[in-house]
Design a protein that fits this description.
With 204 residues, the protein is of the alpha/beta class. The protein has one domain: Alpha-Beta Barrel (TIM Barrel), CATH 3.20.20.70. The protein has a seven-stranded parallel sheet. The longest helix is centred in the C-terminal third of the chain and has 14 residues. Bound molecules: zinc ion.
Length: 204
Amino acid sequence: MGDEVRAIDKGGAEWVHVDVMDGHFVPNITFGAPVMASIRQVTKRLFDVHLMIAPADPYLEQFAKAGADIITVHAEAGPHLDRSLQSIRALGKRAGVALNPATPASAIAHVLDRLDLILVMTVNPGFGGQAFITAMLAKISEIKEMTRGRNIDIEVDGGITAETAPLVVKAGANVLVAGSSIFKGADHAANIKALRGAATSISA
Ligand code: ZN
């Protein structure tokens, strides 16, 4: 993992997106804060930590101490989203909320003041390599409208490729997470360049 993180750092990735899965909120297990802390050592890039865990609140401090810059919790992961977001900011970190495909944008209408980032899941979380859900483009546009005039990043995660990147950027996303399309083959730098080229082609 350290080697892969070094490769994407050198290859031009701006952020390192960390998917933490618990085998409970999502049907898969990845790793926790100690492993994250060890890969934190190999790069200075911004660490964008996506917690697919429930409950998330008891673990926020661990991930903050392990070197997260942004901590994102799922709107569906607990009953007290507002409190979770306040806790993240109280730890001195940027606060994000993620929405599963079935969760409407309106779920976060009342926490916009607490948010630095909104993560629109463009697949159902739990596995890599899934196909992009096209219906999410309308949700991205809706969130872009909701957040107009605010300093909130709109991030997409799932099925992002050179084909889908221009679509999400056009809808309003400004942070694109990619796994399979970056780590395929040996040349991660070329993959990142191709993805960035596709993403920026429509705004040029
Ligand atoms: Zn993620």
